[in-house]
Amino acid sequence: MAYVIAQPCVDIKDKACLEECPVDCIYEGPRKLYIQPDECVDCGACEPVCPVEAVFYEDDLPQELSAFRTADREVFDGLGLPGGARGHAPLAADHAVVDAVPAPSTT
Amino acid sequence: MTTEHEVRRPDRVIIRFAGDSGDGMQLTGDRFMAQTASFGNDLSTLPNFPAEIRAPAGTLPGVSSFQLHFADHDILTPGDAPNVLVAMNPAALKANIGDLPRGAEIIVNTDEFTKRALQKVGYDASPLEDGSLDGYRVHPVPLTTLTIEALKGFGLARKEAERSKNMFALGLLSWMYHRPTEGTETFLRRKFAKKPQIAAANIAAFRAGWNFGETTEDFAVSYEVAPAAKAFPTGTYRNISGNLALAYGLISASRQADLPLFLGSYPITPASDILHELSRHKNFGVRTFQAEDEIAGIGAALGAAFGGSLAVTTTSGPGVALKSETVGLAVSLELPLLVVDIQRGGPSTGLPTKTEQADLLQAMYGRNGEAPVPIVAPKTPADCFDAALEAARIALTYRTPVMLLSDGYLANGSEPWRIPDLEELPDLRVQFASGPNHTLDDGTEVFWPYKRDPRTLARPWAVPGTPGLEHRIGGIEKQDGTGNISYDPANHDFMVRTRQARIDGIEVPDLEVDDPHGAAILVLGWGSTYGPITAAVRRLRGAGDAIAQAHLRHLNPFPRNLGEVLARYDKVVVPEMNLGQLATLIRAKYLVDAHSYNQVNGMPFKAEQLATALKEAIDD
Amino acid sequence: MTDIGNGLLQLVPRAEARQSMKDFKSDQEVRWCPGCGDYAILAAVQGFMPELGLARENIVFVSGIGCSSRFPYYMNTYGMHSIHGRAPAIATGLATSRRDLSVWVVTGDGDALSIGGNHLIHALRRNVNLKILLFNNRIYGLTKGQYSPTSEVGKVTKSTPMGSLDAPFNPVSLAIGAEASFVARTIDSDRKHLTEVLRAAAEHPGTALVEIYQNCNIFNDGAFDALKDRQQAEETVIRLEHGQPIRFGAGLGKAVVRDPATGDLAVVTDTDENESRVLVHDAHAASPATAFALSRLADPDTLHRTPIGVFRSVERPVYDTLMADQLDVAHELLGKGDLGALLAGNDTWTVAG
């Protein structure tokens, strides 16, 4: 169980949550931020500070965002426990569910 | 040389030994008591000593005394007025002479009646010479000199030899009252097993005292009080003090409940003897923990209760004040816990070595919030045994802290006790929770720590180590059933009322009323006033007055029939060693105009004084 | 699974099946403020417990009052949330009467060092088999922000608008002074270090005191930032490891040495010259003197030069064991208690009917 970051974050990456996270478990991907679920301590500090309301407790994820339930966990497959985002390079790639989100139209 | 002595046969005698607190008066009295008990008299004792271990020698505050009442029939109090006073120094004489009726015998240690010693307590002239003791039968005995002489061959320093003068006095009194002596000699040999020379010296002083009585013309009369064979039911008897009986009651409760006994305690007068006694019985599986303070004493006990021990904390009034918050936690956790309060004079430090009954309202109400606690009070020293078992029954059956209110008089006083057969002891076994006790709507079997027994309203006792019953409890209000934290107003209202209902519903025996003549007036007591009240009632009835008597052992809840009993009488008198605490409770609960009769001088009531007061109430 | 083999833990029954972190989470919703350091400690403890391999039903968490003292509600073990400051006393009664239990105390700086200071020091001197987790956030949280007995002098709070006047306790110094046999310090957000310290504490027979620096992000936010910020931490945190020279700083360029003149500890730049003087940490030293000196290294205001890790870990007789031994000896000497004989005593008489 952990908090997850869902679609509203994609291409926004406000990063207010990074400042709040007491255990430094929110990592940056190319288009979205990701919470390392085994490093997350469920404290919920990230949730209220997100300007686009992208952070949800895993169980509370709305139906329409359910595709994001496991994305944060899966993106760390093979990375293990990085041990803190500060000083860690951004993730090389996003999860497929993020890739599937259409890029914002540019005008 | 033998002298012909007159032997008189009174039906009862009251002796008071008085001396400096370093003179060994408590030991002397204790030995005389043991001799008297083994002779088969009924007896009752009143030790009275200062709080200071060694108050300045020869002063009035330093006087320590031991009063013993023994008879050929059953008696109830240590007696009002001594027939004999042993005064080891002028201070002891001055402090006690006021209690002596004219004609009483006084044995004084003349060696201590020096000019300086007399001045120290404000005697301008020696009372032995100025005629002020003319109304008494005074026996001047140079106790110190005689003792030193008797011990000449023992190679003891003068100071050391002097110390045995209390045994000389004991020997003299033993002769006067025909007491058996073997017990005391055995006792001295055992007590000084590692110092045989001292043992021999004490025995020699004891025998010298006996022989002095036998050979001195001054003691022309000796007394024989026949054994009180008819006063006692068949059985084997021993002498027992309240604190010892209470300690034995706790050990017995542990055995009858099949639970290990855990005592968490901090030393405090007059309760420490229970800690000492229980500490000697580790082979009964008794764990005693001398804590860093009163709060830790009860805290550790509560922790042990959570773990499945029969848990006890012992203290006196000031300690109860410190333990209050933890008693409240125990009320909230609904765990069995015995809180033993050996009441003493208050407030604050008060009179540590004197008796009082002024903690009743503290026991009843002295906590934050609605925190009802059952209260049990023994009525005599020996009754402390049964009261401890009864307090344990309530605690274990209803999963609640229980206050056991003894007092300094019961704690240190003693009386014969019929030793119970183990088969007579109540069965106190409890059932720990062992599995789920509730089924959720979806069919899941779960354990609810606050699901109650419908009869007793007690919650299950699930001790750590039981698989599947892991649960968390605490002092925050809990949801009915689940025990989870709940701030819900309706739930709190329900839980407060349920905790009260659990205590109100405790089954206690009906109050028995002793009323052979259909009296219009009832005297109602509780705790250690039983002896003096009963003695006073006997006197009144002997003089042809009708008076009913009832004595409360359960102060919370009261017996179911108490209201009905009170309503039967035109007048209810409540004698208490406080300013009317039981009377307050009675008046509030039953709207009865209970009359208080109070005394708070650190001493138990005297039967004569109570009889006078009750007579006034009858005639009023 | 680590094999934990000291004599006392062996008295506690082991779990039949392999456990996971999930097994130690209770069904209660955690209700600390979002971002509270307590979450990190809870996660670390729940994550560490399976490693102990003890039967869950034989583990008990006892707490006092304060934010941290809600901890037991969130552990799926036995637990008691007691009253302010008294957890060590209650846990003492439980641990001494039930040696088959693993008893943990969770407390805070106010709970353990202010209202419950007496119980803490006496538990430590007795060496009762308790593991005490002292969450130190240097503030009163639950009562909304008054200074605590570990707050720095001059702390401005609601109750001290002109600054607090009293000098703070150093919990590690206090524990060592109270004859503690195990004293360690760690930090809420350093899960790896916290877990290592918990492991050492669990293995220790007797009282183990673990001070955990814990951030209160509401009333004292950032109190330990000097130790958490990666750049700063290199200069501020001294990691104690038994048997290792005490070095810290960038490239471990600084070292702790003993001043030969005063016997005090000092920090020097590590050079070839003073290489031989560098203090080698000995947590098992019989004398508490060096451990105490290490506890005094940190600047209480800036937290510079703060040692973390196990300061002291020595074996000495455990109170509960001694108490149990006395019961055994009494059994041997006197035999199993005979109630009938006890009640009768030596001095009886008989009244015939």
Automatic annotation (TrEMBL), chain A:
Is 4Fe-4S one of the keywords? yes
Annotated GO MF terms:
3 iron, 4 sulfur cluster binding; 4 iron, 4 sulfur cluster binding; electron transfer activity; metal ion binding
Q: Keywords assigned by UniProt?
A: 3Fe-4S, 4Fe-4S, Electron transport, Iron, Iron-sulfur, Metal-binding, Repeat, Transport
Q: Which residues cross the membrane?
A: none
This entry's comment on the bound cofactor is: Binds 1 [3Fe-4S] cluster.
Matching InterPro entries, A to Z? 4Fe4S_Fe-S-bd, 4Fe4S_Fe_S_CS, 7Fe_ferredoxin, FdxA_Actino, RnfB_subfamily
A Pfam family annotated for this UniProt entry: Fer4
Q: Give yes or no: UniProt keyword Electron transport.
A: yes
Q: Which residues form the 4Fe-4S ferredoxin-type domain?
A: 31-60
Q: Which domain of life is it from?
A: Bacteria
Q: What does the function comment of this entry state?
A: Ferredoxins are iron-sulfur proteins that transfer electrons in a wide variety of metabolic reactions.
In terms of NCBIfam families, this protein maps to: FdxA_Actino (NF045480)
Q: What is this protein called?
A: Ferredoxin
Q: Which organism is it from?
A: Streptomyces griseofuscus
- Lineage, highest ranks first: Bacteria, Bacillati, Actinomycetota, Actinomycetes, Kitasatosporales
Automatic annotation (TrEMBL), chain B:
Task: Name the cofactor(s) required for activity, per the record.
Answer: Zn(2+)
Q: Which residues belong to any copy of the Pyruvate flavodoxin/ferredoxin oxidoreductase pyrimidine binding domain?
A: 262-474
Which key words are in the record?
Answer: Metal-binding, Oxidoreductase, Zinc
Q: Does the keyword Transmembrane helix apply?
A: no
GO molecular function per UniProt: magnesium ion binding; oxidoreductase activity, acting on the aldehyde or oxo group of donors
Pfam families from the UniProt entry: PFOR_II, POR, POR_N
Domain Pyruvate:ferredoxin oxidoreductase core residues, every copy: 519-602
Domain Pyruvate/ketoisovalerate oxidoreductase catalytic spans what residues?
22-209
According to its UniProt entry, one GO biological process term is:
response to oxidative stress
- Which family is it part of? Belongs to the peptidase M14 family.
Q: Which PANTHER family match?
A: 2-OXOGLUTARATE OXIDOREDUCTASE SUBUNIT KORA, PYRUVATE-FLAVODOXIN OXIDOREDUCTASE-RELATED
NCBIfam families attached here? OAFO_sf (TIGR03710)
Question: What name does UniProt use for this protein?
Answer: 2-oxoacid:acceptor oxidoreductase subunit alpha
Organism, per UniProt?
A: Streptomyces griseofuscus
TrEMBL record, chain C:
Tell me if Oxidoreductase is a UniProt keyword of this record: yes
Q: Where is the Thiamine pyrophosphate enzyme TPP-binding domain?
A: 65-212
User: Tell me, what's a Pfam family for it?
Assistant: TPP_enzyme_C
Claim: Oxidoreductase is one of the keywords in the record: yes
Q: Which UniProt keywords apply?
A: Oxidoreductase
One of the record's GO molecular function terms: thiamine pyrophosphate binding
Q: Name one GO biological process term.
A: cellular respiration
Q: What name goes with this protein?
A: 2-oxoacid:ferredoxin oxidoreductase subunit beta
